[in-house]
Design goal:
InterPro entries: ConA-like_dom_sf, Ig-like_fold, Ig_7, Laminin_G, PKD_dom_sf, Secre_tail. It comes from Adhaeribacter swui. This is T9SS type A sorting domain-containing protein. The protein has about 1100 residues and is an all-beta fold. The chain has eight domains: about 100 residues, Immunoglobulin-like, CATH 2.60.40; about 210 residues, Sandwich (Jelly Rolls), CATH 2.60.120.200; about 70 residues, Immunoglobulin-like (Sandwich); about 80 residues, Immunoglobulin-like (Sandwich); about 190 residues, no CATH class; about 130 residues; about 90 residues, Immunoglobulins (Immunoglobulin-like, Sandwich); about 80 residues, Immunoglobulin-like. About 0% of the residues lie in helices and about 50% in strands. It has one helix and 105 strands. It has a 38-stranded mixed beta sheet that branches. Strands 11, 13, 14, 17, 22, 23, 24 and 26 form an eight-stranded antiparallel beta sheet that branches. The radius of gyration is 60 Å and the shape is elongated.
Length: about 1100
């Protein structure tokens, strides 16, 4: 049609109506296109047509802009312009539909059903397995745009009753693959599954893909008696299109892919439940399946569902997804791949700001941080784009971490290897033990490994898990040797040929020494030629000569026999046992655990229990310590000695307890102590704590001392010293029992002997008592075993009513006038003892007690015991406390106060009559040999009616004769000094005493003193003394002399007399009464020997 001429009514001129100018347009994918036209002259209208000629204009399309309906292909439209009633010719205008790039390629092999939902649910695979829509609320699923925006190319499901089922029944699908695209924001529902029957409640259901309430996808089968499922870690109800593939095969089990990437696999799930059924899409029964959602109906979009009866390969799955990335292990290259569209451009974006314009980019040395969702945008030559999601997985490497303990060991010992990482199912653990032997363990372990050869050992571990291999981890341990002394070549310790295996043991090697090897005697025993160190050490027999050098031992030590001589032995160990070995070496031992089970220590020995791995140590005993010894417990555990056999400490010994543990000596046995004992401790050290006994038996003075704040406790103590004294330089406490056999304990005010409540003392006598203060705690009767100057002079108490208290007592063999003025006394006291007094003090409690005093022949004369009273100095005068329970005779006895006393201080014997003379207060009485004569001196503090003194001497201490008489001072309260010389003292020992006579003729005697002067030879040795049955008297007399040997009892009666020359005499004492006897040896009046013999 040409242009129209239009004539103007008022001008008569014609106007031309030209065909309009047009603008074509285009779009990507299905949809409407906007077309534009411009006509002239202005003011006209437009007609839009679908044909070039003829036809009818599109209704309502009269403007310059025309929007086409949705188009799925390029379409040409036509437009004309109408003005002044005239219509121009039509102009063609094109609406171009450019295709959206589709990366997805659908494999056709073994494809059973394919539902692309292009306006319906028909199967496009050619197998005619069409789907049927179900749903009453909305009439079933509704058509919706697909992932490319194409309308009516997907289905939306309402989550209430919409679903699709296949019309065709399938019989027991074996191997299969399910491919499905989905997009939802609502978690829950089945995406696809196999059910029977086709609709309604299922009777059988299996091969299920569903979403749980958390948005995670689950795929599972029910092969026999349990469900086997796989699931994604992440949730996918994110409102994006995702591609899921689920496969099953007998070879590879089940696999679950998301967005082209394998998420999980179970090789054991290699079959499904056999039954005939139908595939359902969007709904199916999920009863009893793990993590099933609350709603079995799916709500969201589904598209492009393909069912295969084979396992799709990873490449086929990538084709279906359009792009993909195979899972890789950390450290490997993560490679992305996309299907090819000619002329298209590719843009990738992903985690950590990743971008790439390559079709198939890579990430070298990928870490787990590269895992995640990548978006691929593809633009074709028409400028149209589409997006595909790719889920990339970079798997972490398993960690082959493990520990080794110990890292240093000896051959034959075990090292424990423990995997310290997270054990993963189906992981493969590849260990390397460098020649070691497995004692126990498998798989991940733990293992116990032993090595038979020394050296450095490399332990390795690598792990293969989930297709990834860990970095190999290595641990180094050192295996040391066990060396046995053979002595094949020489005595030289440092000669390798003397050891089995050949070599020289080092600081971490173990050593065994015996006097036999391989059932044959060892010819050469070891001698150390330089300082050496070893770990564990055993000596069973033979001898180790340290040769003046130092051997250091750091491990476990067993001294089972033999000798260690001539040097220094330093031990720092976990345990040491001393059993049957003799040491002349100097020992310095610090060990966790120490056992003394019978060894001899000849030199300085220091033993310290110290360390973190200590336990209670109970030693049998039987050890002998001849050198200075120090034993220390510096732990919180027990150290106990002498549990079965007594030990003997011949030298000085120090015991120290430095921590909260206990140190218990002589626990269940009697141990001898012959030197000084020192306790340096702030914690308890106890002697004789079980049924044992500490026996003080040295022949010289022995001191007991301490430093630290804890008292020294002798639970059971025996003093059995034939000579010397036991000197207390610290207070000691008797916890249970004190036995005084022989020997004197010297105490002091600062260092008393203390008896705890309930403890006892037995055996006190003239040759065995306590010289100094004795303190007693508790209730009940108690006799203080006190004395001085070789006299046992006890004092007793018996608190009323069992009331507890604490008392201290001490005996003083001097005139009681030194404690209180004799002129200040009650009238009922005639006179007081000038020989002795006792200090008795109550130091704790309120106990009242009667007081019992004793007397014997040393008490200045007792002739009427009935007149004796207990006199008490109250600070201003002597008080008569009465006398009752008088037991004994003139020679010895006790007297008890008539009442219980509550005030204490000095006590002495008093007499209520002129009897019991006790007349002179003698301060000093001595005899000294000077130039062949004996000078006798004495001193009095006071005298009353004293006529004088007769000085007497005796060769045997029994029969005395007069030397001289010296007049006394009568009555005097001044100190008086007297002196007499004896010009015929005789030889050997001469005994002296004073006979004091008052004006009434009453006499009393002083104590006996002696002077020893030169004799021709030492004559007599008497053993044993004391004696029970027979005593052996060995005599060496002057040449050609015959002497008389006499045995005299304490009353002066000769009970045995025999002439004898030099030789040996056995004296049978079995028929004699117990007591003290005086044995003398003399020729005529010449006394050669005099001594005491005690019969027990």
């Amino acid at each position: 049609m040409g242009a129209w001429l239009i004539f103007s009514g008022y001008t008569g001129k014609a106007q031309t109506v030209n065909p309009p100018d047009v603008t074509s347009n285009s779009r990507c994918g299905v949809g409407s296109v906007v077309l534009l036209a411009v006509g002239s002259p202005a003011g006209g209208t437009y007609h839009w047509y679908t044909v070039a000629t003829e036809g009818t204009a599109i209704a309502g399309a009269t403007t310059a802009t025309f929007t086409t309906p949705d188009l799925d292909a390029t379409t040409t439209y036509y437009v004309s312009y109408v003005s002044g009633g005239r219509e121009s010719a039509r102009t063609a205008v094109t609406a171009t539909i450019n295709p959206t790039p589709n990366l997805s390629i659908t494999p056709s092999e073994n494809l059973i059903s394919s539902y692309i939902f292009a306006g319906n649910a028909n199967d496009v695979s050619g197998k005619n397995n069409n789907g049927t829509l179900h749903g009453t609320i909305n009439g079933g699923p509704s058509l919706a745009p697909d992932r490319y925006g194409n309308p009516d190319n997907a289905y939306t499901f309402d989550g209430e009753d919409d679903y699709i089922s296949t019309a065709t029944q399938f019989n027991n699908p074996g191997e299969f693959s399910l491919s499905i695209w989905f997009n939802t924001t609502v978690a829950g529902g089945q995406l696809i599954g196999f059910h029977s029957p086709r609709t309604g409640q299922s009777q059988d259901w299996d091969r299920l893909v569903y979403m749980n309430n958390d948005g995670q996808l689950i795929f599972g089968v029910y092969p026999a008696d349990k469900t086997l499922t796989l699931s994604t870690t992440d949730a996918y109800n994110d409102g994006k299109w995702h591609h899921l593939v689920a496969t099953l095969s007998a070879k590879n089990g089940t696999k679950l892919y998301l967005d082209g990437t394998l998420q999980a696999q179970d090789v054991t799930a290699d079959a499904a439940q056999p039954f005939a059924g139908y595939w359902r899409i969007g709904y199916g029964t999920l009863d009893y399946w793990p993590d099933a959602p609350t709603n079995y109906y799916y709500q969201g979009l589904l598209d492009d569902i393909n069912i295969y009866y084979t396992e799709l390969t990873p490449n086929q799955i990538a084709d279906l997804n359009g792009a993909g990335a195979d899972p890789v292990c950390a450290g490997n290259t993560l490679a992305f791949k996309a299907n090819t569209i000619p002329g298209a451009s590719y843009t990738w974006a992903g985690p950590n700001g990743f971008t790439s314009n390559l079709q198939n980019p890579i990430i070298p040395d990928a870490t787990t941080a590269a895992s995640g969702t990548y978006t691929l945008t593809v633009q074709n030559s028409s400028g149209c784009t589409s997006q595909t999601l790719v889920e990339a997985i970079v798997k972490s490497l398993p960690l082959a971490t493990f520990t080794v303990s110990p890292t240093e060991m000896n051959t034959g010992e075990n090292s424990v290897l423990t995997f310290s990482g997270t054990q993963e199912e189906n992981a493969e653990y590849n260990w390397g033990f460098d020649g070691g032997t497995i004692v126990s363990g498998s798989g991940a372990g733990p293992y116990q490994i032993t090595w038979n050869t020394p050296g450095k050992k490399n332990i390795t571990l690598s792990i293969i898990s989930n297709g990834c291999t860990s970095a190999m981890q290595t641990r180094l341990i050192t295996v040391y040797g066990n060396y046995i002394w053979t002595g094949n070549t020489s005595t030289d310790w440092s000669n390798p040929a003397n050891w089995a295996p050949n070599g020289v043991p080092g600081a971490n090697d173990n050593v065994i020494i015996s006097n036999t090897y391989d059932n044959a005697p060892v010819t050469h025993l070891p001698v150390i030629t330089s300082n050496v160190a070893v770990k564990d050490f055993i000596i069973n027999s033979g001898r180790l000569n340290l040769n003046g050098k130092t051997l250091t031992i750091s491990g476990v030590v067993d001294f089972n026999g033999g000798q260690v001589t001539n040097g220094n032995l330093t031990i720092s160990c976990a345990r040491v046992t001393f059993k049957g070995t003799s040491f002349t070496a100097v020992l310095n031992v610090i060990c966790d655990n120490i056992y003394f089970n019978g060894s001899v220590f000849q030199n300085t020995t220091t033993i310290t229990k110290q360390g973190a791995a200590t336990v209670d140590n109970d030693s049998e005993g039987g050890s002998v310590f001849n050198g200075p010894t120090t034993i220390i417990n510096n732990t919180d555990s027990r150290m106990r000695l002498g549990t079965a056999i007594g030990d003997m400490f011949a030298g000085n010994v120090t015991f120290t307890n430095q921590a909260s543990g206990t140190l218990e000596i002589s626990y269940n046995s009697a141990s001898d102590f012959r030197g000084d004992i020192s306790v340096n401790s702030n914690s308890v050290v106890t002697f004789g704590n079980g049924t044992g006994m500490a026996v003080i038996s040295g022949q010289n003075d022995q001191t007991i001392s301490k430093s630290g704040g804890t008292p020294v406790l002798f639970n059971r103590l025996t003093v059995n010293k034939i000579s010397g004294k036991m000197l207390l330089q610290t207070p000691i406490t008797i916890g249970n029992e004190l036995i005084l056999t022989q020997g004197i304990i010297i105490s002091s005010t600062a260092n008393p002997l203390i008896f705890s409540a309930g403890s006892t003392v037995t055996g006190a006598k003239h040759r065995s008592y306590v010289e100094g203060p004795v303190k007693r705690f508790g209730s009940g009767a108690f006799t203080f075993p006190v004395g001085k100057n070789n006299f046992y002079r006890p004092i007793g108490i018996n608190p009323n009513g069992g009331v507890s208290g604490a008392f201290t007592a001490e005996y003083f063999p001097v005139s009681s006038a030194t404690a209180g003025n004799h002129n200040s006394k009650e009238a009922t006291i005639n006179h007081l003892s000038n020989c002795e007094y006792w200090q008795l003090d109550r130091v704790a409690g309120l106990a009242a007690t009667p007081v019992t005093l004793s007397w014997d022949t040393n008490s200045c004369g007792v002739d009427v015991p009935a007149d004796l009273v207990v006199a008490h100095w109250n600070g201003s005068k002597w008080i008569n406390t009465g006398g009752r329970s008088i037991i004994g005779n003139n020679s010895a006895g006790t007297v008890t106060s008539a009442e219980a006393l509550t005030v204490f201080s000095p006590f002495t014997l008093g007499s209520s009559s002129v009897n019991n003379p006790l007349p002179v207060q003698l301060l000093k009485f001595t005899a000294v040999m000077q130039a062949g004569k004996v000078v006798i001196n004495w001193q009095t503090a006071s005298e009353k009616d004293n006529k004088g003194f007769e000085v007497q001497h005796s060769a045997d201490g029994v029969t005395f004769t007069k030397v001289a008489f010296v007049e006394g001072a009568g009555t005097s309260f001044d100190i008086k000094d007297y002196q007499v010389s004896d010009y015929s003292p005789g030889s050997g020992i001469t005994y002296y005493r004073l006979l004091q006579e008052d004006y009434t003729g009453k006499i009393s005697y002083s104590k006996i003193i002696s002077v020893k002067h030169t004799t021709e030879t030492k004559l007599v040795l008497v053993t044993p003394n004391p004696v029970v049955n027979k005593a052996v008297i060995s005599m060496q007399l002057p040449l050609s002399k015959t002497c008389t040997i006499k045995l005299v009892d304490v009353s002066g009666r000769t009970v045995y007399s025999q002439s004898i020359t030099s030789g040996r005499l056995v004296l049978d004492m079995s028929g004699y009464a117990k007591g003290v006897y005086f044995i003398s040896l003399q020729e005529g009046s010449n006394l050669f020997y005099r001594g005491k013999l005690v019969k027990e």
